[in-house]
Amino acid sequence: MQKLPMDLTGKNILVAGAAGFVPSHVCQLYLEKGATVYGLDNFITGSKSNIELLSKFEKFHFEERNIFESIPEYKDVKFDYILSLASPASPIDFKIIPLEIMRVNSEGTLKLLELAKAHGATFLEASTSEVYGDPEIHPQVESYVGHVNPIGPRSCYDEAKRFAEALTMSFHTRYNVDTRIIRIFNTYGPRMRPNDGRVIPNFVNQAMDNEELTVYGDGSQTRSFCYVTDLVNAIDHVLMLGDHMPYNIGNPDEYTIKECAELIISALDSKSVLSFKELPKDDPKRRRPDISRVMKLGYLPKVTFAEGLEKTASYFKSLK
Ligand code: UDP
């Protein structure tokens, strides 16, 4: 098996969406490995504090940009890797900024792919488990083509990511660009927005404040949660060692949402109780990645849900 390169000194990496939760951890990993990282973000959902944190590294360069409008020319840089990580990804974003989501994953991704073609760079598209929609097979394998509602409340994200995958694959087949597609499953950890609307930040913050935990539906729907450092490690494996076919990345450790709520209450020693709310339309019933493909590259998730929750809770506490 090929080994993961640990020293990336001399490599230039462009990260679109650098101020976001997962991308900021990706930037950090590559800066720690010695690469020069160029970040782009328009702060639509990303946070300035992530950029401040990354700016402590000498080899981090940042430009505020909306990549579906334009990207810098980068005349004096030759990129080795270009990472398309710029999309808002929370269901609350789908309601508020659906057109921005569709444009960044189409026009934005196209601009990044053209740049990768011009630079001879390896291109990575951060796609999502959402391309499977409400899946009819379980666990989800990469060969499953999905069950997506094209006009539902999640479609601006699901279909935009399906388009981004198609665009990426077309640049590979038509222009022989070295491409990667990752399908990210539910990820959590420090630097998530506390008001992100997703289940882990909601439950952890509610439990810390001894407020009711808002379980949507009867809480029998499942998700499989991956701690952010594991996810970033999986991205590194795919980028450095993978091929152009899609990779599921995440942690197959699966919980019902009700179990997840109960675990968080007990881990935080909280007095909260559960409060059941209406289930949003098209909410996937079960989700668990089959990660055998990425495991063949040497990836294995390491952080348990209990450890990850503890780290996430101390992060949210530090913000109070
Ligand atoms: N959810 C919940 N309460 C919340 C937020 C989310 O019960 O306060 C549920 C949501 O309906 C879904 C699951 O938790 O079934 C995961 O939701 P999230 O928004 O984190 O991500 P998704 O996997 O749906 O994109």
Describe the structure.
The chain contains ten helices and 13 strands. It is of the alpha/beta class and 320 residues long. The strands form four sheets. A seven-stranded parallel β-sheet has the order 3-2-1-4-5-6-11, sandwiched between helices. Strand 2 (36-41), helix 2 and strand 3 form a beta-alpha-beta unit. Helix 4 runs parallel beside helix 5, helix 6 packs parallel to helix 8 and helix 6 packs across helix 10. It is globular, with a radius of gyration of 19 Å. The model has no long low-confidence stretch (mean pLDDT 97). Uridine-5'-diphosphate binds at residues 91, 186, 198-199, 202, 214-216, 221, 223, 257, 280, 283. Uridine-5'-diphosphate (UDP) binds at residues 91, 186, 198-199, 202, 214-216, 221, 223, 257, 280, 283.
Short précis:
The protein is α/β, with parallel strands linked by helices.
Please outline the helices and strands.
Layout: E1 12-16, H1 21-32, E2 36-41, H2 48-54, E3 60-64, E4 81-84, H3 91-96, H4 98-119, E5 122-128, H5 155-175, E6 179-184, E7 187-188, H6 199-208, E8 213-216, E9 222-224, E10 226-227, H7 228-241, E11 247-249, E12 254-256, H8 257-267, E13 274-277, H9 292-295, H10 305-319
Parallel strand pairs: 1-2, 1-4, 2-3, 4-5, 5-6, 6-11, 7-10, 8-13
Antiparallel strand pairs: 9-12
Bound molecules: uridine-5'-diphosphate.
